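Below is one such record:
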Amino acid sequence: MQLPDALGISDKDCKFISTMKRAAVKEFAWTKIKCVRNTFLVGLHFYICDDPRAQDVFSFLSKYEFAGNYDIWHFVETALVFRARDFRLRGEDANSNATLQRIQKSGNVHTRLAGRLLDSIRRDAENARRLKIKKSEIGWLESMCMEIIFNIELGPLGDRVSFEVELEKSIIRLRELTGCC
């Protein structure tokens, strides 16, 4: 299997992303949750840094076909949501809609849109920030970005503006914490 060039070693990457890349490509296999998660997180941090390589990573992950394992699919469907967002922002509504339909076919969408998970993640991120546990705060903010994007693209249109504001605040904080971008 050919991994995307975006996962290769690059002088452009900060230490944080370089470390994540090494974890992502080490013995990559679609059956290993850790590999898929780490690959997604590289894409997420590229996205946070406005690096176009994010879409290369998300495109790679979108090749995975749902096979009943929601632990792996969680990261793939979130990569698909980021792709749908990119399509929508570029005015490619047909591609965005097709990508979102692929996510909806696997089910589990309504559970994520109910908001309980996002509320819990917000609390945990705030607790980590208050306690100054940097690594935990980064992890919770990553999860928060994932859930916010999911709600922006698949949730009610009326909620989009407030979610966009929250997403931007989370991205700014992640940039501060990681020292990237």
Observations:
- Residues 1 and 29 are 9 Å apart (CA to CA).
- The mean pLDDT is 91.
- Residues 5-178 form one domain.
